[in-house]
Design a protein that fits this description.
single chain, about 270 residues, alpha/beta, Rossmann fold, 7-stranded parallel sheet, 7 strands
């Protein structure tokens, strides 16, 4: 895919941060319709207005993606008013940074899992059949997981669980589409480390691993999406940590992660939002 010109692009968590940047990139390339989903009505309306002022055709929907009913209703509305998207960014996410036993079962555990793990499944299930049926036209699904979906970390147990789930599900769907003979629908799973969106405020950087900027990440995700790249892991140190984790005894890797790379201490001063 050389460009998203003429395509319908749906982005969750689109009001701010990386979601907003994806929408701006879609507008810049001439997407036919940019569909924004978010729970923050004020910021959603602001972003939609900015994009329309730049000449883009934008449709904004107030959607709580932690609710299956809300997802089902919003998807039906999108299909009725615009049609199924050609490109889907499952970008919405939340984080809770504390020990597992400090998590509230509903406000923390269920909430995190519903947005980070279940919502991408429910949303993709709504739109994937039409993507499959649209043979001859390149279709894309981008799932924003996390490096926390590859490496365990203290004070991130539930967040890690949600992103491990997203990672495994996303890459399995990629394989299923290939196996079933639908190469025009390509799934990209994205596993970045901490990004300076405010979501991980207070998190510490790791050895050779700076806090990533939203623009750096979105530019690379956008290119990976168009190329149909199966996986995007950022930065290179995540590849290294995964290799070491697979090769070394658990306690040896734990020592390195804690005392050399600094992975296990990154959430000590987490504030978030």
């Amino acid at each position: 895919m050389q460009t998203v010109a003429g395509k319908k692009v749906l982005i969750t968590g689109a009001a701010m941060g990386m979601g907003k940047i994806y929408a701006q990139l879609a507008a810049r390339e001439g997407a036919a319709n940019i569909i924004l989903w978010d729970i923050n009505q004020a910021e959603l309306e602001k972003t939609a207005a900015e994009l329309r002022a730049a000449g883009a055709t934008v449709h904004s929907y107030l959607v709580d993606v932690s609710s299956l009913d809300a997802i089902t209703a919003a998807a039906a509305q999108v299909r009725g008013e615009i049609g199924d998207p050609d490109i889907l960014f499952n970008n919405a996410g939340v984080v809770r940074g504390k020990y597992f036993w400090e998590h509230d079962p509903v406000k923390d555990i269920a909430f995190t899992m519903s947005i980070n793990a279940m919502a991408p499944m429910y949303i993709t299930r709504e739109f994937l059949p039409a993507m499959i049926a649209r043979r001859g036209a390149e279709q894309r699904v981008v799932n924003i997981a996390s490096a926390a979906g590859l490496i365990s970390n203290p004070r991130m147990s539930v967040y890690c669980a949600s992103k491990w789930s997203c990672t495994g599900w996303s890459d399995s769907v990629r394989l299923e589409l290939e196996q079933a003979g639908y190469p025009h629908v390509r799934v990209t799973t994205v596993n970045p480390t901490y990004i300076a969106t405010g979501m991980f405020e207070g998190a510490k950087s790791m050895l050779f691993t700076p806090i990533l900027t939203p623009q750096y990440v979105t530019d690379r995700v956008w290119a990976a999406m168009k190329a149909g790249r199966p996986r995007l892991i950022l930065p290179w140190t995540v590849y290294l940590s995964n290799a070491l984790r697979g090769l070394l005894p658990v306690r040896v890797f734990d020592w390195l992660a804690r005392h050399v790379f600094g992975v296990y201490n990154t959430m000590d001063s987490f504030k978030g939002r």
